[in-house]
Prior knowledge:
Blueprint lengths: L8 H12 L3 H4 L3 H30 L5 H26 L22 H26 L3 H13 L1 H17 L16 H12 L6 E5 L6 H14 L4 E5 H7 L4 H8 L10 E5 L14 H8 L7 H8 L2 E6 L7 H12 L7 E5 L7
Parallel strand pairs: 1-4, 1-5, 2-3, 3-4
Helix pairs in contact: 3-4, 3-5, 3-7, 4-5, 5-6
Amino acid sequence: MTSQKPITFKDVLRQLKADLIGKDSYRGVTLTYSWLANQFGHFSLGFVPSLLIYTTLKRYTHCQDPSFWAALIIAVCWFLFETYNFLGPLLLKQHSKSKLLFIPGRDYSFEPAWGNIAFDTITDLCFFWIGAFSACLFLVFAWKIVFILAALLIAIIYPCCYWFQTKMYLQAAVYPFQFRLSQWDVNINKEDKKAVLAFLENEYQAKHLFVFGGRRSGKTSLAVGVATELSIRHNSSTYTTGMKLYSMFFESDSILLAEDRTLWSWRTGSVLVIDDINPGNPVAKDLVFPVDFLAMLDTYTPPNDENRTAIKAKKAIWVLGDDQKNKLLFTQWKQMLLDIGVSGNDILAVHLQKSYLP
């Protein structure tokens, strides 16, 4: 499989500079900028309420050390809220009438990555607590608050590094929308689900997953959901449509990186999502056949070893049209990959039905 193109410290500094300097109304908002703003919001939701609670305690009670108790009250409140928000969908299955908490009404097609969600929850709590105890220190200096803040700031270093890089991996992939696999809340048969999980099982092993289906079958959202999980695990992913990829076959990596201003090209990344290779139902006729794809991959001068090696040595998700005639299309596309050297054991397929979505 194509070696990982990790995000370096220099890449992180460059992204921080881009996010912190300039007007977002002019350049747009990135995922990293949104994450920074979100954490500042968490800090503020700890800081400001602590000041309000302190003022109330100071004015209407005889509480000793009101600044500390104000920070502690807010810290406990946010802990209880985030615990409720996290454990609700984890433990319960019925619908909730609460507007504050979403609880699914039935089992997930694919289980959420609960460990990753718990880590995100803990990260948010740390920012809430830092905000609350910063307000306490702002009001009254105390060494115990200094030690609490120091411990929280040390604890938050790794989560900050992880989540900022994760957002960089996600935005460099250029997905058309944000979507996790557990959000793909439609029916899927056991055979297809097994294929998806097998594709994800070893994130660093070259595999190819064909996703067949017509319009509104959920094939694009499934592909994006699977690739998103790999990006969150810090795989260098690229999303593209078939038409765009055909032209990129003819361009060098230096040109692609300069034009797209991204961290890796489709060749150097480890995961590739090829969407809209064919439209599928209601368009009955396929527009691109395996022989056409291979000719463009070879840039009409077969064989193009660089392109062939790049395709066969990565995790690739192929989003195609319907395959209702004895899975003939899968056989044809699979044979194309076999011809360029992909092992048959590394080729999987999912056949979605158009009745999956209303």
